[in-house]
Design brief:
Keywords: Membrane, Metal-binding, Transmembrane, Transmembrane helix, Zinc, Zinc-finger. Helix 6 packs antiparallel against helix 7, helix 10 packs antiparallel against helix 11 and helix 16 runs antiparallel to helix 18. This protein has four domains: 42 residues, no CATH class; 275 residues, Rhopdopsin 7-helix transmembrane proteins; 75 residues, no CATH class; 73 residues. The protein is built from 18 helices and 14 strands. It has 600 residues and is mainly alpha-helical. It is globular. It starts with a helix and ends with a strand. The strands form six sheets. A three-stranded antiparallel sheet has the order 6-5-9.
């Protein structure tokens, strides 16, 4: 009985409170102690005014997201245009996975930005349709990623160094998207023609999108886990075939894979691989990105299902909890689309992105791409001095060449430290001045692979010393770093004065949002700058350990012309020669081989 009395008194108090609130909060909020607590989309004493700050804030976020993806798409097209031997815009606009993802995210972000900008001016049906348009566009992006990973997992002949578009899974991608947009068009038609409750129709179609997203996220996580967690699939077979496993390993794999299914042979290839070949950094990046997107999709499915059942539970929740639900819902929507420009940040080089090239999980692939990639004319290795050529028709010629540094090519230099052999290279790139190599490592400090030789892939032997981070800053870098610190310190102060001078919700939201974005950009630049400076300082304090070269090497080259004479050169191993014989006289510090020339 006491319980029933308590419930009755509570209802009476709520009724009395609502009587004290003006206009009963216009049906857009709850009344507490005579004060209206408005829903997120409304404001004012009677909750009858539109909350401009809410719509402006999320509208700006989606406009910025669309602008960012547009810039990335333009850079991607420009990069493809510059790579063509015969440049043409038609070929540069060829559809690829990367370009289509950018385009779909642009359209999705624009649809949601227009909704927040024009919602108050649009009819209810149009606003509801524009609100639902966001989900099939994102589902198209996710289905494209799933199909791309499925091809990487199943197709061993797929080229990952130049990610193009879908091949065998294109039909499945088209079928899934046809179903998506049939539902979207059906929603547009039914909302405009039928006289049913528009909210009920919107909930039905949102439930369909939630069901399709549930199916999609299952495949997204299945293929993502197989490729980036278990590191299985056809792309691993392609990697091992191009990186020349030892004969014993290949034979063992072939023997074990006889009578096995393709998936089992893929597993065997992974077992035979060297675990050191996996790039731990790229592996962790891919796993974090995969789990983050998977979690966001699961949350989106839950929010969509809650929106379907909203009439049953919304009125029973206090307005504050409903507002928290709405804000979290919008944040998840932003995160779903924001994930794509983040993982596709290298718009000019899609082959270096883990999402479009799973072989980036392997360290050796990264080294080979750098050493065997596009050959530029300013490459120090390709532009080194060439030895004089010899005419094979002359009777004899002799050219003597001394050891030289492959960086400075200065034989008389004495201020660059001793000449050393820091790696396993032979020939023209075997020797280098200690200070020349040290300076080159400092200039390449932002590249973690610079501590390896680009030719033989041997790691330089370094002796650590004490590093001072301030010595790693260059003049230009130090200036921009100080400027970033100043902007980070002055941004909040500027926002405070703007809000004091212009006390408006719109101005406050815009200024705070711009300040947050500016702080994020400056913080990212500051982190990169400090890391680069620390790497420079640490490398500057290192001492490179290598084999000392005390005496100069003389290379004597002898050429013979008679084609009918048999000439044989014998060194540590015998190799036949027909027209040209090179005889190398090595110093004791470099070689102990004895070279003899025999004529018959």
């Amino acid at each position: 009985m006491w319980r029933e009395a308590t419930v009755y008194l509570r209802k009476m108090m709520e009724a009395s409170n609502q009587e004290n609130c003006p206009a009963n909060c216009s049906g857009h909020g709850d009344c507490h102690d005579g004060v209206c607590i408005c829903e997120l989309e409304f404001q004012g004493i009677e909750c009858e005014d539109i909350n401009n700050a809410y719509f402006v804030a999320f509208g700006i976020i989606f406009y910025l997201l669309s602008t960012c993806c547009t810039i990335q798409l333009i850079l991607c097209i420009q990069s493809d245009f510059s790579r063509l031997k015969n440049p043409s815009f038609q070929k540069a606009l060829k559809v690829t996975t990367q370009k289509l993802l950018y385009f779909l995210v642009i359209i999705a972000a624009l649809s949601r930005a227009l909704y927040f900008s024009l919602q108050r001016y649009l009819p209810e049906t149009w606003a509801s349709n524009m609100l639902s348009m966001y989900y099939p566009l994102l589902l198209s992006c996710f289905s494209l990623v799933v199909c791309f990973w499925a091809e990487a997992f199943h197709l061993s002949d797929k080229q990952h160094s130049n990610p193009g578009f879908l091949r065998d899974s294109f039909c499945y991608f088209i079928l899934f998207n046809v179903l998506l947009y049939i539902l979207l068009v059906a929603q547009f038609i039914t909302m405009e023609t039928l006289s049913f409750d528009h909210q009920l129709l919107s909930n039905i179609f949102n439930g369909c999108f939630a069901g399709l997203m549930t199916i999609e996220v299952i495949f997204f996580l299945v293929y993502g886990v197989e490729v980036f967690f278990k590191i299985k699939g056809a792309f691993t077979v392609n990697y091992h075939s191009t990186n020349q496993l030892p004969a014993a390993d290949i034979g063992q794999l072939n023997v074990n894979s006889m009578g096995q299914s393709p998936d089992q042979s893929h597993d065997l290839s992974v077992i035979g691989a060297n675990i050191k070949s996996v790039d731990v950094s790229i592996m962790h990046q891919s796993r974090i990105g995969l789990l983050f997107q998977g979690l966001l999709q699961i949350l989106m499915v839950l929010f969509l299902m809650l929106s379907v059942t909203e009439p049953q539970w919304r009125e029973s929740l206090p307005v504050l909890k409903r507002n928290v639900h709405d804000v979290l819902f919008r944040i998840v929507e932003v995160g779903l689309a924001l994930w794509f420009p983040c993982v596709l940040w290298k718009s000019r080089s899609p082959e270096s992105l883990w999402m479009l090239n799973p072989t980036r999980l392997f360290r050796q692939t990264r080294d080979e791409e750098k050493s065997q990639g596009s050959k530029k004319e300013d490459d120090w290795l390709l532009c080194r001095k060439r030895a004089p050529t010899y005419d094979s028709t002359t009777d004899s010629s002799r050219v003597e060449k001394e050891l030289e540094c492959w960086i400075c090519y200065d034989l008389q230099r004495t201020d660059a430290g001793p000449m050393i052999q820091p790696c396993e290279c032979k020939g023209d790139v075997a020797c280098v001045h200690h200070e020349c190599l040290k300076r080159w490592l400092i200039e390449s400090a932002d590249n973690p692979e610079a501590l390896h030789c680009k030719v033989c892939q041997a790691e330089y032997q370094l002796k650590t010393g004490s590093a001072c981070i301030w010595k790693g800053f260059q003049l230009k870098q130090g200036f921009f770093t100080a400027l970033a610190v100043g902007i980070m310190a002055g941004g909040p102060v500027a926002v405070y004065y703007i809000m004091e001078k212009y006390p408006s919700d719109v101005v406050s939201v815009v200024s705070i949002g711009a300040c947050i974005l500016l702080e994020i950009v400056c913080l990212k630049y500051l982190g990169i700058s400090l890391c680069t400076a620390y790497n420079r300082a640490s490398i500057a304090s290192l001492r490179i350990i290598g084999k000392m070269v005390n005496k100069q090497e003389t290379i004597a080259t002898t050429t013979t012309s008679p084609p009918e004479s048999d000439v044989t050169a014998t060194a540590s191993r015998t190799e036949p020669s027909i027209a040209i014989v090179s005889v190398s006289i090595m110093s004791p510090e470099l070689s102990s081989n004895v070279v003899q020339v025999h004529r018959e």
